[in-house]
Amino acid sequence: MVLESPLNIAVIGAGIGGLAAGLCLAKKGFEITIFEKSNLKGELGAGIQLSPNSLRVLFSLGMERSLRSNSSYSEFIAIRDWKDGALIKKNPLNPDSEQTYGYPYLHIHRGDLMKVMLDTIKADKLISLRTMSGVAAVNEMVSKCAVKLDSGSEESFDLVIGADGINSLVASCLDSKVKPIFTGNVAWRALVPSSNLSDELIYKNAALWLGPRRHFVHYKVRKGDLINCIGISESDAWKKESWIEKADIKEFEVEFEGWDRRLRNLVESVDEATLHKWALYRRPTIKKWHSDRLVLVGDSCHATLPFLAQGAALAIEDAAVLANCLSEGHNSREAFSFYQRLRERRVKWVQFMSNANARSFHCREQFAPIRNFLLKSFSGRALDKLYKYDAIS
Ligand SMILES: Cc1cc2nc3c(=O)[nH]c(=O)nc-3n(C[C@H](O)[C@H](O)[C@H](O)COP(=O)(O)OP(=O)(O)OC[C@H]3O[C@@H](n4cnc5c(N)ncnc54)[C@H](O)[C@@H]3O)c2cc1C
Hints:
By secondary structure, the chain is of the alpha/beta class. It is built from 12 helices and 18 strands. Helices cover about 35% and strands about 25% of the residues.
C-alpha cells in the first residue's frame, strides 16, 4: 500500500474519464496502462458541452490550442418555450464565461474531443493505450492487483482505476449490489447539417427548449457546419443503454409533434444516419469508491442525468483530484479515502442539481409559468459554484 515511485497503474476504460485519468496521473510521474475493450473507431456520439470547470483541467494538460480550434463558441444559450419558441431567458456563454471564470464554454463534437485527448496520450511516453483489450476480471491481492483480459492473459499492477462507465466491472468488485437504475428518460441524439436549414437566427446560438415531459437542446459543432441535437423525453417503453442504438426518424418526429415550427424544422432536417436513442440510467452513488488498490472515476462511480451537462466534467475533475491525492499521499488507501472525501459532496450536489433540472425542464404545462418565473429570477449564483470549481489545486 505504500506509494513508491514510479507506481504502475492500470486504468480500465478509455472514455473521457479514463483518458483524463491517464493524462493527469502521467503528469504526476506514474506509469499508466489504459485498457479499452473497443477499437475507439466506432460511433463516438454527437456533441458535448465543455464547461469552464472541465476546461481548467484539460487546458492544464496541454490541450488548449487544439480544443479551442476544434470547438464552436455560442454567445449564449436561449431558453425557449416549446409551443412558440418564446424566449424565457438568455444565459450568456462566450465571452462571458472566460471573463467570469477564466475559461470559455465550448461546444465540440465528441469525436473531435476524443481525437484531441488521444493525440495528447500518444505524445506521453508514460502512457500505453491498449485498445481491443477488454478486461474480464480484476483481483485485488495484498501487494498487487491482477488484471485478467478477455483474451485470457493476466497482468499485474500496483493500482487499478475503474473508468469503465455505468456498467462498471471495477465498481462491481467494490459493491456487487449497486446496479444502474433506469430513470424513465430516453435521449435522442442527432446531427443536422447546417446547409439543410434555412438561415434562421435561432440556430446560430445554443438553445434549450422546454416542454411538458420533454426538452430539446441544440448547439453548433464543427465550426457551425453541424448542429448537434439532443431531445430527451420521458418514456418507460424502451430501456436500452447504448450510444450505438439507431433510432427511427418517424418516432423522433412524433416525440416533438406540435412544437414550434423552427424546432420541428430541425427535427425534420436531421441526418438519419446520425440519429440514435439512448435510455438514460443513473448509478446510485456507491458508499465506498475504493478499496486499498482499486478506485473509481466518472460514470462508473456516479453516472448522473445529463440535465446539467456535467457527467464528463465530473469525470475530468475526478481525474485531476485523484492524481493530486495519489501524488501527495503516503499510501494508496489514504490517498483514495482523501479523494473520496474531496469529491463526494460535490458529486452529490451536481446530481441533486441535475435531478432538480429534470423536474423543472419537464414540468407539466400548468406549472410552466411558475417554472419560467423562477428561471428568470434565478441569479446564476449556483452556476458560479459549478464553474469556479478548481480541481487542480
Ligand atoms: C445525451 C447525453 C448528453 C451528455 N452531454 C454531456 C455534456 O454536454 N457535458 C458533459 O460533461 N457530460 C455530458 N454527458 C455525460 C457524459 O457523456 C458521461 O458522463 C461521460 O462520457 C462519462 O465518461 P466515462 O469515461 O466515465 O464513461 P464512458 O464514456 O462510459 O467510458 C467507459 C469506457 O470504458 C470502456 N469499458 C467498459 N468496460 C470495459 C472493460 N471491461 N474493459 C475495457 N474497457 C471497458 C468502454 O468501452 C468505454 O470506452 C452526456 C450524457 C448523455 C447521455
